Amino acid sequence: MDVLGIGNAIVDVLFRTDDDTIRAHELPKGGMTLIDETQAEKLYTEAGETTERSGGSVANAIAIAAALGADAGYVGKVSDDRLGTSFTESIRSHGVHFTTPALSGSPATARCLVMVTPDGERTMSTFLGACTALGPDDIEQDDVAGSRVSLIEGYLADTEQARATIGKVVDAAAKSKARVGLTLSDAGCVDRHREYFRELARENVEIIIADEDEMAALVGDEPATSLLRGNGGNCELVIVTHGEKGSTVYAPGGVVEDVLVHPAEQLVDTTGAGDAYAGGFLYGWTRGLDLATCGRIGAVAASLVVAQLGAQPPEGLREKVAALVPGLEVR
Ligand SMILES: OC[C@H]1O[C@H](O)[C@H](O)[C@@H]1O
């Protein structure tokens, strides 16, 4: 495969709300808070009209890469319930190989209550449910070794079992030419697990993709380049996204690409913007494209995703990206 994703398999339940409601629930605006099933039910009951979409950070990225034409697979745990079926059908509909056995019975499939405010910002509350059962046995070492890159998400650090799963991925990759990529997910998540992520960056991960806040949470006063191979880290690529201002790609040897963003036609919902960037970038990278073009593909994919509600690949993604990235033929 070109890219294999390992992450929390989540169904997003999106609804529009306002800042007062976010404050009333004492949720960090723009962040992700872990909740239990009872809290998830309560939020759902209060939500009013909702829209259900397949979610999960790395699952979103992998769906984008597959929709662009990458040979892509995903490992994540759902339960054999309605939401599990919905997640499975959705990710497969984008051409992703997804065969992780579903849990029988409880805990239920994970869901993320995504509150979208009028400024397009999303505030997420996640019940992890079946994701907590993802474990090393779900990883086929040959799949990792046979993929150009295995992409893991920072959110996996929230459970011990998932950290063991990451351990199996990095071991399998280390025995092959496969690369390991990491998206940092959320600044709060980096705050919770900073030392763990720093160790991954020093020892195991070749590609890191993060937004400015997540990167600052990881490196503090040090530059992002401190994660590069030769500077104390293990990374071959460190990519920092700057929202509507674009992204910066750092590589060893002082290679820096500042990539301007493609402006979004409209801002509806930022859910999955970073995931779309990661999926688009890695699609380009697995095709051997230059770093600036990889960044442009990511930026265009992100600009299309924020113009809709939810993180799913937009209709006609391949054609739209090919039209907006000069010189790119999407095959
Ligand atoms: O990055 C956005 C994703 O994070 C959470 O995992 C939600 O499921 C959402 O789809």
Automatic annotation (TrEMBL):
Any Pfam family matching the protein: PfkB
UniProt entry tagged with the keyword Transferase: yes
InterPro entries: Carb_kinase_PfkB-like, Carboh/pur_kinase_PfkB_CS, PfkB_dom, Ribokinase-like
GO molecular function, one term: kinase activity
Domain of life: Bacteria
SUPFAM superfamilies: Ribokinase-like
Record-annotated Carbohydrate kinase PfkB domain positions: 41-314
Entry annotated with the keyword Transit peptide: no
Keywords: Kinase, Transferase
Signal peptide region: none
PANTHER family assigned: CARBOHYDRATE KINASE PFKB DOMAIN-CONTAINING PROTEIN, SUGAR KINASE
Family: Belongs to the carbohydrate kinase PfkB family.
Protein name per Swiss-Prot or TrEMBL: Sugar/nucleoside kinase (Ribokinase family)
